[in-house]
Every structure is written in C-alpha cells, then in structure tokens.
Amino acid sequence: MILKRNLLAGAVLLALGACGTQTPTTGASAAATEAKVSGVDMTALDTQVRPQDDFYQFANGGWLDNTEIPKIYSGYTIYHQVYEDAEKSLLEIIKHAAASQAKPGTEAQKVGDTYAGWMDTANIEAKGLTPLEDELQAIAALKGQDGLVELFAQMIRDQQEAPLGMYVSPDLKDSSQYAVYFYQSGLTLPNRDYYLDKDNQNFANIREQLPAFIQKMLSFTDAGMTLERANAVYRLEHKIAEHQWSQVENRDDEKTYNPYKRSELPQLGKHLQWQPLMAALGLDEVNRVIIGQPSYFSALDTLIAETPLTVWQDYLSFHLVLGYAGDLPAAIDSTAFEFMGQKLQGQSEQTPRWKRGVGKVNGALGEAVGKLYVEQRFPAKAKEKMTELVNNVLAVFDDSIDKLDWMSEATRKAAKLKRSQFTTKIGYPDVWRDYSALTIVPGDHLGNMQRVHAFDYQRQLDKLGNPIDKNEWFMTPQTVNAYYDPTKNEIVFPAARLQQPFFQLDADDAINYGAIGGVIGHEISHGFDDSGSKYDGRGNLHDWWTKADRAAFEARTQRLVEQYNQFSPIEGMTVNGELTLGENIGDLSGVTMAYRAYIRSLKGKKAPVINGFTGPQRFFIGYAMSRKGKYKRETTVSRLASDPHSPLQYRVNGVYRNLTEFQQAFDVKPGDGMYLAPEDRVQLW
C-alpha cells in the first residue's frame, strides 16, 4: 500500500494434464521433486477448474470451498490467518506483562494495566458514562459559535469524529520539514457515496437505518432523545457529504495540496473561526497550513452558520459516544456493533473480548509489545533472506527502467536517480518509540484510552519545528502489511508480513518470489505509480517527467483503468478503476518485477519440477495464494466504495491477463478465460 496518513497439508499430487501445465521434459527435473519443498498448499487448489480459465479459483478454490468466514469477522483472508498466529504470541506477551507486577512506569506495567483495565468489565459497567461526563457537559454547555470550534478541536485531539481533521506530516513539497494538514471529515458511514448515491440500493438500505441508530446511541446520554432530533443529525451529515470531495479526487496530491498562511485562512469563511481553532489545537506558533479540500471548508463555514447549535450538540454527543462505544458498558458497545458491525459490514458476532484487548494494547503501545514479538518470531536469517529478495527485485527494477521503450532519456535518468535514493526497512525499527511520557492508570480503562490519544496527539505536535524523524515507522512489527512512504521514498516490511505462508525459509525460491517478492515489487512500484511517480527521490511532490512521457504513461494507465472498470464482483457494482489505479499498478508491476527477479535468481538454470509444477508455475501459484480470501456481501459493498485495492480475485486474474509470462507458463490460448490479446495487454514498468 502507498502510505496515506489521513489515514491487515496434505500433499495431493496434481496430474499435469488436468491443469494444462507444461510437462517436464527430463527425468532429472522430475527427480528434483523430492529434493526441495515447493511451499504450495496443494489442498488449497481447485483442480476441477482450469488455470487457463480462472486462475484465482484454480489456486484458491479448495481453500475457498472449505473455509467459512468466522462469525466474528466480516471477511477472512490469508492476512487474518497470519495475524491470528501473531495474535497468539501477542496475547502471551501481554498476559505475562499483566501478571508480572511490574514496577510502575515501566513498559511492562503499561502493557499489563492497559489490557487488565480493558478486561475489567465490572469496573467499566459500574462507571457507565461517568468517564465522559466532562466532555458531554462541555457539549451541553455550548452557548454560541465561539465555543463550537473549540469542541471541534477537542474531538480532534481525542481522535474522535469531527467535521474536520488535522495531522502533522512532512511537507509534500519540502519533505525536510513538517507541516500541518487539515482535511474533510465528519461522517458516520464510510464515505460520501453512502449518502449521495441514489442508484445504489445497498447504500440506500444503510442510510435509511442511520437515523434510528443515531437515536439509539443518543438515548444513552439523553433519555428524551427523539427520532426527529436524530434525523436532524443525519441531515447535517448528508449536507457535509454533499460538499466533500470524492475518493478519486482525494487521491490527487496536487489538488489536495493547498497552502494557506495563517492570515489567509479567513478567506475560507468567517464562521469557522481559525484563530480560536488553531489555539485550541495547540498550533499557536504555526503560521502556515495545508488545506486538503478548500471548497469543503468554505461549505463547512456556511454549515456552521446555518445549522442550529442544538443540532451540532447532538452531532458531537453522538460521535463522542460512538467513538468510545467499545470502551463503555456492554449496552452501548452492543448497540454500536449491531449497526456498525452487523448491518454495515455483515459481521455476525462481536469479536471476543481478549482479541479486542490485544488490539487495544497494540493501538496504545504497539512498539512496546513489538519488541518482544520480534524476539520471538523474526530470526536474523529471515531478515537476511528478505534483504536478499529485496535487493534482487530492486536490481530488476533498475534494469527495467533501462529497457523501457516509451520513456525518454531525460525521464529515465530522473527515474533511476529516484530509485537509487530508495530506503528499505525490514522487520522492525532501529529506534523504538519512547513511551515514558504516557501514563497508564490501573482500573481506569477509558481514562487510559484518553491519555493514549493525548500522548499520540502530543507526539504530532512535538514534530513541528524539528527535523524529520527518519527512524519512525507507521506500522508496528506485528502488522501484517507493508507500505511505501512517498515523502521518505522508503519501502517498509514489518516482521509479521514476513511469516508463513507469505515467506517460507525452507521452501523453494519460486514460492517466496511469488508470495513475498510480489509484495516487494508492489511497494517498489508505488514509487512509480500514478501518485508516487509525482514525487522525486527526496520525497518532494515535484514533477520530474517530460510532458510527453507523462502523457505516454497516463495513456497506458488509462487502459488499465478501463480494464478494471469492467470487473463486477457483485450484481450492480463494479470496481472503480480510477480509485484502485495506484494499487492495480502496484500489483501489475510488482508481479512483473518479482517474476523477472525469480528468473534471474536461477542464473540460467532450469527450475526443478515440484509437485507437478514448473518453477514459473509455482511462482504464479505463490502470488495467487497470497491473495486468497472471502468477504461478506456488506463488506464487499463497503470496500468497492472506499478501498483503493481491487477485490482479491482481480488482484490475481486482472494482473495475470496482462502478463505474457503467465500466458506462456500455463499455455493460455485464445478463448480461454485468462486470455487477453497481446495488443490489449498493459505493461508499465
């Protein structure tokens, strides 16, 4: 993924003829079958499906048919499997800390008491809404617009939903210093389409139920709450949605980079009082900010003036209680889950409390438990092997730049310079986060969460005026993911992403180049996708392309957009090729680079046939298996509307249709489901 801060065995030998694979030509190759472990989960295959027709189903159909989505999830993927394995280690680490009677102020004490406080449901029930009493009283005491922006600021500082958001990050056009960013926010539903799309019945069904949910949640703070008042909150959110920018518009970093001097902010309107807002956010010394969506902020200014204060009070109370619902008594928690989990995402049952507790500790003290996770689960040899794989894929990417026939020498030179400035981080940070300023109080769960939010917010403020922290990670080691950060021009691979079956130390190279090499290539490619390619090697939003080369690149990517626009995972909805373009480029180019790196690793030798598959075939199976998963319909609807990643089946089939190497490896012919005519195939890097 590209980092956006506004912002996880049996062996059944397959008959070669049944899958249309290439037949081994020598006995020596066949004999090598016994010499190495393929890493392919043969039970996951669906041998009744030809790989030439639907490769995703062929590679994963056995697993898909035999795997039910657990009731506690709205989807279940290989990522869930790997995280559940990590979760067991984390639970033991956390429980050991909770039982250790650690010295006050130590990380062990903070980890243990964070978890113990969450698990103490009797204490949480006894306190009720009392921990939020000060915040609710402040909202109730609102007398005029002067105090409204201060309440907005408090919600932001407390990481709760407000009509605007703020974060601190490197300046996109001067990555040597930090800047303050303001962006649109304030909705209960995933994005504006849920409020505005009149043709999508899935969205209509959800928004029709939203007012009743708002009423239920507000009834916990006001027994006299009426549906009429709840409808007023819904109408306010609808108006907010009307003025928000689309997901596609927000992908354009040039359009969302709008610097304003402090003195210029009143140009956006007089009712959103910027001076009191900045003061309440602790930004008194900040004289320049970046506004993500200027037209939205101008519209918000009007909404502040036109919306009765009583509606704003209900809106803020609703979002405060909803934001903390999981930390409050069971009646509030279950009411929130019924709508946000069951109706919106299709999740049948609430996640067990211990699992949620591990998540709470991860969110609060992720690097503190990450240290111990790394000691247990990430040996030095894994980092060495991963470093080798990364370097091999990077070398292939360099060669690819040299051979591009659509790129001029001027742009090629700049591309090679950017690539040479890449930084790679593998496994865990060199410098761990310091939690000494965070206080965790035994028996005060919600208070602890508020102190965590305050600690995290202060960490942001402390960045202002200081050098960029090159050691900072935006994922913990136990996160099953990876990312590219354009402002640092770095690729980052947490330790949990480098576990089986993504990364198998004892397996033949083909599976690793497919499963984890594809991820390496994906993150590298983000530096050169439609968004990342607008940043230079120093992490600045700076156009280093010639106009002709940019036009040639965009012509190719538009063909990819059109391909993905045709994919429809559920009736009535299609993939948004523009929204998913960056990730689709990452998938296509990433697999391309990983495959070439695998072939290079063979050094001219022929790969052994293992379990009836050639090396190239195992590579493609490895990548496909790394994308296996299934989702509830409700979650698929939500992801199609807001997720920049395509549905899993298209992250495989959509890529492979464009790869001549895949077509050759499985002898795909015209008329096969996976066939795409050579002239229609897209190649970028």
Automatic annotation (TrEMBL):
**GO biological processes:** protein processing
Source domain of life is Bacteria
| Residues in Peptidase M13 C-terminal domain copies | 481-682
Q: Does the keyword NADP apply?
A: no
Q: Does the keyword Cell cycle apply?
A: no
Keywords from the named record? Hydrolase, Metal-binding, Metalloprotease, Protease, Signal, Zinc
According to the entry, every stretch annotated as the Peptidase M13 N-terminal domain falls at 51-429
Co-factor(s): Zn(2+)
Q: Name one GO molecular function term.
A: metal ion binding
A Gene Ontology term for the protein's cellular component? plasma membrane
Q: What residue stretch is flagged as signal peptide?
A: 1-20
Enumerate the SUPFAM superfamilies for this protein. Metalloproteases ('zincins'), catalytic domain
Q: Which family does it belong to?
A: Belongs to the peptidase M13 family.
- Recorded protein name is M13 family metallopeptidase
From which source organism is this entry? Shewanella salipaludis
